[in-house]
């Protein structure tokens, strides 16, 4: 038997809803911190309440910038079926289902119901090499942006007669010292 869970992920916490009985909308909820320790607690809670195979647990969460990533990777590595869905899809599903409450708990229930009703595809994480390459590219782009900002500041500093200490500081940043 497949168990459906929804997790509303935010920067600080995970609002979890286990849809115990989809037909009767019986649920069990839990709130945990969105931290490595909180993820360990989530795994323990799942193992305690759902002692069957991890593959029998389908967990739906929204793509929330970067905040969902740690949970998605952790749960996937634990062997759970994880679906990371577009927030617009869950919002449309909530409207179509008549869900009018907009709370974290209600959102986690919508996500669990979404998983049960629509059976979204399992999320597949990128290979570690791809993630590493993307992180390196992002870092290079950030450094290039920072360098351009400092060059723009130096140009402005030379025009408006900025104090020598500030000009030297900008030049040091550009030189990387």
UniProtKB/TrEMBL annotation:
Residues 130-160 form a coiled coil. Pfam families: DEDD_Tnp_IS110 (PF01548). GO terms for molecular function: DNA binding; transposase activity. Transmembrane segments: none annotated. Residues 5-158 form the Transposase IS110-like N-terminal domain. This is Transposase. Keywords: Coiled coil. GO terms for biological process: DNA transposition.
């Amino acid at each position: 038997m497949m168990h459906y869970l929804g997790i509303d992920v935010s920067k600080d916490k995970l609002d979890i809803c286990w849809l115990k009985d989809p037909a009767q909308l019986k649920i069990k909820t839990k709130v945990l911190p969105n931290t490595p320790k909180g993820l360990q607690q989530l795994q323990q809670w799942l193992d305690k309440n759902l002692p069957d195979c991890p593959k029998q647990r389908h967990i739906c969460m929204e793509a929330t910038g970067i905040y969902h990533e740690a949970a998605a990777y952790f749960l996937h590595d634990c062997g759970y079926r994880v679906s990371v869905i577009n927030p617009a899809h869950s919002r449309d599903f909530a409207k179509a289902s008549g869900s009018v409450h907009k709370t974290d708990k209600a959102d986690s229930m919508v996500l669990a119901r979404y998983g049960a009703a629509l059976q979204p595809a399992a999320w597949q994480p990128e290979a570690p090499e791809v993630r590493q390459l993307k992180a390196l590219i992002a870092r290079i782009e950030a450094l290039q942006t920072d360098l351009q900002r400092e060059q723009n500041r130096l140009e402005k500093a030379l025009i408006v007669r900025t104090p020598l200490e500030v000009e030297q500081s900008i030049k040091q940043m550009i030189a990387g010292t």
